[in-house]
Write a structure and sequence with these properties.
Blueprint (H helix, E strand, L loop, with lengths): L4 H23 L14 E2 L5 E3 L2 E2 H17 L4 H17 L10 E2 L5 E3 L5 H17 L2 H19 L15 E2 L1 H16 L5 H16 E2 L4 E2 L2 E2 L9 H4 E2 L1 H17 L4 H18 L11 E2 L13 E2 H18 L2 H17 L11 E2 L5 E3 L11 H27 L1
Antiparallel strand pairs: 1-2, 3-4, 4-5, 6-9, 7-8, 10-11, 12-13, 13-14
InterPro entries: 6-hairpin_glycosidase_sf (IPR008928), 6hp_glycosidase-like_sf (IPR012341), AGE/CE (IPR010819)
Protein name: AGE family epimerase/isomerase
Family: Belongs to the N-acylglucosamine 2-epimerase family.
């Protein structure tokens, strides 16, 4: 199948409507904590508050969203003010005395948990850079660049952070180069940083050389330091949706680099490999985990359908289609779009359920917790709108030039 221009215009209108009339209104303004600052995001099906603790990841992610809406959709003062609430809360409560960030705090900002990795920091970087662009606050821009530098150190200096495991079976995950690619892309597109291009090239090379296995048509989630497969349960476990998220980061970079053909090919191969492994041919949707050799997976939620991989696959398939014109990606995009919006979307209350059983029935009704909030879904709807706006404009311009 293929998408006509009319189809794409309707799809763009759909994503824009869902973002601005369904997803964003579910969260705002009710989730902005007017007492302590930041955001109250642990919410049930109808938006009721089920816990007032705060995920530090989501203080940054939410400030990024509000700032990005302000920068790219409409200069609404409520979005800018909402973003500032998150930035202020992060700076007042989310950094430990060693400069590292917490993961989980109370409503007031008292620390509960700190994790070994630096994802809280990366989400703070994208929040600060987007907010600095929106507000013109150069002090926040410099803080974002400084924190980005710290993240580079964390990601590239072995032993700098406390290890999770012993040295008996060393490994590395695709998550680090992936999140750093996206962090660098975000800071480059908002406030700029001269380090971005060089480091993005290094991180893409690491993914291509160590995690993408063309011989077995796979993208590994975890490998040995030399890139070899670790033939144990953890080493064999794949997360197709996560790998496909990495694929669209690389396609996004290809677009930035004047449609770099090598990066387009790499991103599309990553998508191809993991669609084949992840798409549930019996029930539809993307399986959460699978084994590289088809062996049983340890995690008991391995065949559930989580919301966020579907957001990432919707983006990746649409981006691949608009960049290559390959009708296969239009077909896949329609399959994942139709599945996700029919199964995850709560038509009565708005937003998406986060967790489905394999057959597509709702496993539990929470819309927000430490790991789910206003990020993957609104980012997907926002970015798909951006992709389609650009593609439609180019198509119309080309057709007019051909007349």
């Amino acid at each position: 199948m293929s998408y006509s221009n009319t189809d794409l215009i309707q799809l763009k209108d759909f994503y824009q409507h869902q973002l601005l009339q369904d997803t964003v209104p579910f969260w705002f303004p009710q989730s902005i904590d007017t007492v302590h600052g930041g955001y109250l995001l642990m919410r049930g099906q109808d938006g009721d508050l089920i816990d007032d603790d705060k995920s530090v990841w989501f203080q940054g992610r939410t400030a990024w969203l509000l700032s990005t809406l302000y920068n790219t959709v409409e200069t609404k003062q409520e979005w800018l003010d909402g973003a500032k609430s998150g930035i202020d809360f992060i700076n007042q409560h989310c950094f430990d005395t060693d400069g590292r960030m917490f993961f989980h705090v109370t409503r007031e900002g008292n620390p509960i948990r700190k994790r070994r990795y630096y994802f809280s920091e990366t989400f703070a970087v994208i929040a600060m850079s987007a907010y600095a662009k929106a507000s013109g606050d150069e002090k926040i821009a410099e803080q974002a660049r400084h924190l980005f530098g710290e993240c580079i150190k964390y990601s590239s200096t072995p032993g700098l952070l406390e290890p999770k495991y012993t040295s008996e079976r060393p490994s590395k995950g695709i998550g680090s180069p992936m999140i750093m690619i996206n962090t660098a892309q975000q800071i480059r597109e908002t406030i700029g940083d001269p380090r971005c291009d060089e480091w993005i090239t290094k991180w893409i090379a690491e993914i291509e050389n160590d995690f993408v296995k063309h011989d077995i048509k796979c993208v590994m989630e975890q490998v040995a330091p030399d890139g070899s497969i670790i033939d144990h349960i953890d080493g064999r476990t794949l997360n197709p949706g996560h790998a496909i998220e990495g694929a669209w980061f690389i396609l996004h970079e290809a677009k930035h680099r004047n449609n770099d053909p090598h990066l387009i090919e790499l991103g599309c191969k990553m998508l191809d490999y993991m669609w084949e492994r992840g798409w549930d041919k019996e029930h539809g949707g993307i399986l959460y985990f699978c084994d590289v050799y088809g062996k049983p997976v340890q995690e008991y939620w391995q065949d559930m359908k989580f919301w966020w991989p579907h957001n990432e696959v919707i983006i990746a398939t649409l981006l691949a289609y608009t960049m290559t014109g390959d009708e296969k990606y239009a077909k896949w995009h329609k399959m994942i779009h139709d599945y996700a919006y029919s199964k995850f979307h709560d038509k009565e209350n708005g937003e998406w359920f986060g967790y489905l059983h394999r057959d597509g029935t709702v496993a539990q009704t929470a819309k927000g917790n430490l790991y789910k909030g206003p990020f993957h879904l609104p980012r997907q709807e926002w970015y798909c709108t951006q992709i389609l706006n650009e593609y439609i404009e180019k198509t119309i311009k080309y057709e007019n030039q051909s007349l």
